[in-house]
Amino acid sequence: MNPFEYASADSLDDAVALLREKKGRVRVIAGGTDLIPQMKSGVAEPERLVDLKGIPGLDRVEISAGGLRLGTLVPLTEIASHPGIRESHAALAQGASAAASPQIRNAGTLGGNLCQRPRCWYFRNEDFHCRKKGGSECFALEGENKYHAIFGGDDCCIVHPSDTAPALVACEAEATLRSPRGERRVPLADFFVLPSVDVRWENILAKDEILVSVFAPSPPPGTRASYTKIRERASFDFALASVAAVLTFEGATCTRARIVLGGVAPIPWPCPAAESVLVGHALDDALIAHASNAALEGAAPLSKNRYKVSLTRGIIRRALANLNASKEGT
Amino acid sequence: MLPLMANILGPGKVPLTLEINARRVEVSAEPRATLLEILRDHLDLTGTKNVCEMGECGACTVHLDGVARYACLTLAVEAVGRRVTTIEGLSSANGTLHPLQQAFVEKDGLQCGFCTPGQVMAAAALLAENPSPSHDEIRAAMAGNICRCGAYPKIFEAVAEAAARMKSARQD
Q1: pLDDT class for A54, splitting at 50, 70, 90?
Q2: Inter-chain contact A4–B78, Cβ cutoff 8 Å?
Q3: Is the pLDDT of residue B6 over 80?
Q4: Cβ contact (<8 Å) for B6 and A3?
Q5: How many CB pairs under 8 A join A and B?
Q6: Among A6, A41, A235, beta carbon nearest to B31
Q7: Which residues of A touch B74 (CB under 8 A)?
Q8: Residue B93 has what pLDDT?
Q9: How high is the pLDDT of residue B48?
Q10: B70 vs A53: CB contact, 8 Å cut-off?
Q11: Is A57 left (phi over 0), alpha (psi -120 to 50) or beta?
Q12: Most buried residue among A278, A301, A324, B39 by CB atoms closer than 10 A?
């Protein structure tokens, strides 16, 4: 690890001022479970770390009639086990519990999970000056790309590694960001950007800006949600593919659907084509198969990840069938 | 520009006061020093093992305020003001083993033993929170600890045995 100075911020004003002072050469630290390995492998070499853990209130979970607000410092363990979150936003709780290992979920925070850098082994290896690090080439496009994108990866075929991001995007969550210029709110879906927009960074955060909290509105009555993740190793691993599905039913009819994929694109990947197949209909096997096929239309697998197409289609089908069955069970 | 109120430490060595196994210790270290480095290289607490150093194996599991954490992914400076417990702090002062340590010995919950301190610390955090875990709960709680020898069945057996003994000790 390179040497750095460590500053513990007492307030958000303090934190953004500390970021601004050495703009671009500072990183915020919360759980540190992604940042510290990045520093150890030489892909992040900040001159200063700004620790957010001393800022009061950023670890708050607030549940109101309108929805769920989570501070950026809420640990993944708490999201996974919180009875209120499991009740109101099951896909999020399941996503948090599917992330990493118990020790990492104890340290890791919501903000860190959403802002973590990709796992691409070329990106994580300091010897490869890839496009994401300012180079001119994406080595994975023609190289070892078993774990890479099947959607949206033309310029840089990383996949977004977060398990909470697909769930929160499916819940139509909104992010609150804070910089020296003030506060802004954006739909979480617009927080993440494709490499074609910014190949160097996976989200819209400015270098002196912090993700402060996320708000997920309460779902309408009759909503069923889940997060389904497939990993190569059962104990703990990143997703080969995952799907967050949030369906609202009135009687047997699906009136609203949000399907967002993880592990297959550089951002949480929404599936509007699949959603529109479902809305307005009672679900049966044929319609569910039709929707999961629609979700994978336009997939562009690379030389070693063609398996992700059928895998993803399969987990969408499984998730939708389970949600439909759970609706019938109530 | 706002006046900066924060205390900026480093990048050179700074004095850190830590609470480790209920004892206050003073060390001098750079902010980049991990808790694992401080435990092993400054304090000779070598029970906490250094294996992958990337948060993937669990050999360096310690407790921070009673919660299982990887010491390799924790900066020492982040541990200031918090209670650190290592495997050395788990047994009683008179040397009596913790029921988990005793159960690992009796049930052969190891082969080479290198991952064992981390396994025991992960299990101790589990039993503190869930005194009667099911087999699946044990497996889930121990998922962040790799055993290169593959002694998992014996490890799970040792954890279940320790849980049962601790439960009956409480009822006596």
Answers
A1: very high
A2: no
A3: no
A4: no
A5: 109
A6: A6
A7: 32, 107
A8: 86
A9: 98
A10: no
A11: left
A12: B39
- Alpha carbon distance A311, A228 (integer Å): 12
Shortest distance between the Cα of A121 and any Cα of chain B, in A, equals 14
Residues of chain B with Cβ-Cβ distance to A32 below 8 Å are 73-75, 78
What domains can be seen in chain A, in order of their start residue? 223-328 (3.30.390.50)
Q: Is the pLDDT of residue A329 over 60?
A: no
pLDDT of residue B5: 52
* Domains and their CATH numbers in chain B: 14-88 (3.10.20.30), 99-171 (1.10.150.120)
Instruction: Give contacts of A40 with chain B, Cβ < 8 Å.
Output: 53-54
Give B172 to chain A, closest Cα distance, Å: 32
Averaged confidence pLDDT in chain A: 97
- Per-residue model confidence as pLDDT tens digits over A77-91: 999 999 999 999 999
Euclidean distance between CA atoms A12 and A28, whole angstroms: 12
> Hey, what long-range contacts does B13-19 have (CB within 8 A, 24 or more apart)?
B14/B77, B16/B76, B16/B77, B16/B80, B17/B80, B18/B76, B18/B79, B18/B80, B18/B84, B19/B82, B19/B83, B19/B84
pLDDT (0 to 100) of residue A254? 98
Average pLDDT value for residue range B16-40: 98
Q: What pLDDT shows up at residue A24?
A: 84
pLDDT digits (tens, 9 = 90+) for A229-245: 999 998 999 999 999 99
Whether residues A3 and B10 touch (CB distance < 8 A) is answered with yes
Chain A contact residues (CB < 8 Å to B): 1-11, 13-14, 17-18, 21, 29, 32-33, 36-37, 39-41, 47-51, 53, 100-104, 106-107, 235-236
Q: How confident is the model over A276-306, as pLDDT tens digits?
A: 999 999 999 999 999 999 999 999 999 999 9
Under a CB-based contact definition with an 8 Å cutoff, are residues A49 and A8 in contact? Answer: no
Q: How large is the average pLDDT for residues B42-58?
A: 98
CB contact under 8 A, A235 and B143: yes
